Automatic annotation (TrEMBL):
CDD domains: IGPS. GO terms for molecular function: indole-3-glycerol-phosphate synthase activity; phosphoribosylanthranilate isomerase activity. Pathway: Amino-acid biosynthesis; L-tryptophan biosynthesis; L-tryptophan from chorismate: step 4/5. InterPro entries: Aldolase_TIM, Indole-3-glycerol_P_synth, Indole-3-glycerol_P_synth_dom, Indole-3-GlycerolPSynthase_CS, RibuloseP-bd_barrel. It comes from the Bacteria. SUPFAM superfamilies: Ribulose-phoshate binding barrel. Residues 9-255 form the Indole-3-glycerol phosphate synthase domain. The keyword Lyase applies. This is Indole-3-glycerol phosphate synthase. It catalyses: 1-(2-carboxyphenylamino)-1-deoxy-D-ribulose 5-phosphate + H(+) = (1S,2R)-1-C-(indol-3-yl)glycerol 3-phosphate + CO2 + H2O. It comes from Vreelandella halophila.
Amino acid sequence: MNDGTPTVLKRIVARKHEEVAERQRRLSFEDCRSEAREQPATRGFAAALQRRIDAGDPAVIAEIKRASPSAGVLRDPYDPAAIARDYEAHGAACLSVLTDRDFFQGGEADLLAAREACTLPVLRKDFMVDEYQIHESRIAGADCILLIAACLSVNQMQALAGTARELGMDVLVEVHNEAELDQALQVDSPLLGINNRDLHTFEVSLDTTRTLHQRVPDGRLTITESGIHTRKDVDAMRERGIHAFLVGESFMRAGSPGYRLGELFFSI
Ligand SMILES: O=C(O)c1ccccc1NCC(=O)[C@H](O)[C@H](O)COP(=O)(O)O
């Protein structure tokens, strides 16, 4: 029941608008845009996922996050570079690094450290609400950005995706229900994330992917996100033709996140 208190997602989005204004006072939009255009080539996030799937393997986006609003602190001490190396050694296709500070205790330095420690493409996992953040993501080393349909209109997603593409980054559009899926399908990007977690209530159900995936047209790559904890969860998705996964908490709680990835996806 909604008692009028803003959900965490709404508070995150409100904070993001403040953050963009603060950051633009330190580095102007024009300077941020120029710096973004000078960055070296990206690593090809969507292509890395597709290569794994074409080879008949699961394509795992392995997440690096210190904490989350729903779970609190997941990992302490927290060493993004060591985790990135561990993930790469155990078969991850790509990384996802939380860069939000106020709600996930992350930062762009975590992304840079993780990316420099391995050869994998990296998703900047944050809450995009403004074009400024797209340029900033490129400077931070992102190979892919996330657009969450629950936070954005179709026009906003199309504009932000266009800027990301111009800068050479891939775009993961994330949905949680049918209305959001209809909106996401109006955005030109092959990567379609179905988040099993309702970002307003934190409720998690893998049925979200099972239901929505049936409506995903050919040409889009479904990535199931959140709540993947067991081999049974993985097999149930693969039986339905879903071969790309974004997993965080299960790995972050393990002594060796990479070893846990291997156990869950490659039966080591
Ligand atoms: O996870 C949260 O608490 C959360 C709260 C508000 C907005 C986003 C949130 N999480 C983002 C994600 O959905 C996950 O980081 C990602 O899909 C991995 O999920 P998991 O494997 O369950 O850690």
